[in-house]
Design the sequence.
């Protein structure tokens, strides 16, 4: 049973949280094919502890007073003296972007511009949180409304070719900020959570990526979107122009380096606890949790802006055997808000729950038939993860050791 997506053949679970070594890096990939050759996945050490849990222990040893001094030094270097924007905070008005923008402006005296790559289908409460972020929090904002026809096509293709409903959103969201910063002569960008906390193969601070292709590109022939090359998309869909696709690609190396843009994670300088960000956003920016439990997990306030969010996490479960409850509960274990046994119970109860609430609306919008989507899910199940028994799909291995092969 050769794994798909270049996944590790032997499925192992972290001994501290409930994440497995099948978790992929969340860094956007432009050369993204079905087998994802060369993709990186969560590493477990000799004690079967994942990188994310080891990073959580590192946080306990960090001198956060010194880190804050580093932050203040960085901010003083970029602080505006004439009232112009001195940093850029990309976000949607979720708990994290609300927290980081508010802290930078009202605690540290910066003048941030916020920018937003909007969801393909806003939830009612997600849009309300966006409005509250800007209006109650008090921020200037640039929202880039992408070409809806092209966004819809690329999202549909990403599902059909990669079973990745969120790829185009992730790429657009990540690559918008450096372009906006360049246009407004802002040379400091802040993201929120430190990617190292999730075991991603990335340095603590994004500054080290300045000259890498994460933010720049030079050869469009090597770039894939939605599982197709740029050339293939332009040849197959006459209404799509090259200029339509540049929106999803990184800023050019020339513009990025000539502007001396620096990209930082606020979570590198300030101890980042998602639950605390939630409470802060509620108090200061009018953030409100989802009015009901999110399908696939037990929480109500993580990634709730887009109706396609739930579908994205469900496809993660199909491809990697890890659902939304696995992600949420692992993070809470690392912050000592849950025990591993409690997390295992939550995974057993909620992981892989079908995203019933918005599925029909999303598929109708994208022009995908329900039965075709279900067939596509089956096509993307890796045989080393899934086993079909009496017509039903079952995981071969689970963190609760109740899989068909456990």
Sequence:
């Amino acid at each position: 049973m050769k794994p798909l997506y270049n996944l590790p053949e032997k499925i192992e679970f972290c001994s501290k949280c409930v994440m497995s070594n099948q978790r992929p890096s969340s860094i956007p990939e432009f050369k993204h094919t079905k087998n994802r050759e060369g993709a990186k996945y969560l590493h477990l050490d000799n004690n079967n502890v994942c990188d994310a849990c080891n990073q959580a222990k590192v946080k306990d040893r960090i001198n956060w007073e010194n880190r804050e001094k580093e932050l203040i030094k960085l901010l003083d270097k970029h602080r505006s003296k004439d009232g112009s924007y001195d940093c850029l905070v990309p976000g949607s008005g979720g708990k994290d972007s609300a927290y980081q923008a508010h802290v930078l402006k009202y605690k540290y005296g910066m003048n941030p511009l916020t920018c937003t790559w909007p969801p393909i289908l806003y939830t009612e409460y997600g849009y309300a949180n966006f409005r509250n972020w800007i209006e109650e929090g008090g921020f200037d904002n640039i929202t880039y409304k992408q070409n809806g026809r092209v966004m819809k096509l690329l999202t549909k293709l990403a599902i059909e070719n990669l079973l990745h409903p969120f790829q185009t959103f992730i790429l657009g969201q990540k690559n918008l900020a450096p372009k906006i910063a360049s246009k407004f002569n802002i040379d400091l960008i802040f993201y929120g959570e430190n990617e190292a906390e999730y075991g991603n193969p990335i340095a603590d601070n994004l500054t080290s990526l300045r000259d890498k292709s994460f933010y720049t590109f030079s050869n469009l022939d090597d770039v894939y979107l939605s599982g197709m090359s740029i050339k293939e998309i332009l040849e197959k869909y006459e209404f799509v122009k090259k200029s339509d696709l540049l929106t999803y690609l990184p800023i050019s190396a020339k513009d990025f380096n000539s502007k001396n843009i620096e990209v930082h994670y606020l979570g590198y300088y300030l101890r980042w606890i998602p639950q605390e960000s939630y409470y802060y956003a509620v108090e200061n920016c009018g953030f409100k949790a989802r009015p009901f439990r999110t399908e696939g997990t037990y929480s109500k306030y993580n990634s709730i802006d887009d109706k396609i969010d739930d579908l994205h996490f469900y496809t993660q479960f199909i491809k990697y055997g890890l659902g939304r409850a696995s992600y949420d509960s692992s993070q809470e274990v690392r912050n000592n808000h849950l025990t591993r046994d409690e997390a295992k119970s939550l995974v057993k109860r909620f992981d892989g729950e079908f995203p019933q609430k918005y599925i029909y609306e999303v598929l109708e919008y994208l022009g995908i038939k329900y039965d075709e989507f279900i067939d596509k899910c089956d096509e993307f199940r890796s045989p080393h993860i899934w086993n079909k028994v009496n017509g039903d799909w079952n995981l071969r291995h689970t963190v609760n050791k109740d899989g068909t092969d456990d």
The chain is about 40% helix and 10% strand.
